[in-house]
Amino acid sequence: MNEGMKRKMIFSAFMAVAVITAGCSKTETTKIPEMGTIIFGKTFVGAPVKAATETTTDVLQGSGAGFYVYGGSEEKTDLFAGTHVTYNVDKWTYEDVRYWMPNKTYKFAAYAPDLTGASGEIIFSYENGDGALTISDFVANKDQQHDLVYAVATPKTTNPTIDADPGIVDFSFKHILSKVLLKFEKGTGFADNVKLVISNLKVYGMNSKATYNGTTWTSQAKPVEEGNAFTWSSVTESGNVPTSEALYLIPQNSATVNISFDVALDDGQGTTASESKTGTITATWESDNVYTYTATINSTDLTNTYPINFNGTVKGWTGQDNTGDVTVQ
What we know:
Layout: E1 5-10, E2 40-45, H1 57-60, E3 67-73, E4 80-88, E5 91-93, E6 105-112, E7 120-125, E8 132-139, E9 149-152, E10 156-157, E11 169-175, E12 178-186, E13 195-204, E14 207-212, E15 217-223, E16 230-234, E17 237-238, E18 241-242, E19 247-249, E20 253-266, E21 275-284, E22 289-297
């Protein structure tokens, strides 16, 4: 994390309590406890089915990936201040191991992936319910794309004498952005062999800056301008359907998103001249949701859609009444 994404530890009793729910699909990793040390494990990433690189449990377990932990006890709330926890062989590890202190209540929150170079500030509040992170002035634009996941662990209170392991700190991460894709499907009036060729796709208009307070996104601002739009020079096919790469965007309500693109037809022998098209969608997006918008293009929407057709008939015999005699020997 560089200076662009700062970390702070503060006390606050006025922010909303974080509510964390798991997705419909999860992968469990079981840990072997080490007596007395604070260990992180059973880390889940909920699949955004209600619903950069998509953040999954496998991605978190990849070399050098992991997640970043904040929290501690009422005595030392910054025991962990963005500590990087990574997966090593069969367990999660971090540098400079910390130990449980007796008769304390510990609270932890975490996020992933690495936000080095990202805009904004991360603030941990011990007194915000079970502990929570505020991610302020987070930016999701063409230059800063992250599938941001977030989790708050169940608090742990230690006994006056720690004669048994307090247990592993478990995180169940949730996707807190919206995942958006655009698809371009062939409608009516086209031959089966014809494919759509989509190029110069441009998407802009959605809010790109907001603050996450542990439960919701607030202070949405900075609409993406056309000059800073998400752009693709070409759109690759997925299952014979041109589909954009996934966008990870600020959850928001009612922003008008502008779309422009060029479309041509490929018949396997050549490509027709491109035609420019535009469209709009209304961004009504919630966190942990995937939104797929489909533009169905019919032949009547284009001018360069006249196939080479043939017609054939067989003319009757010109002379049908010619007769002759057979000379019999």
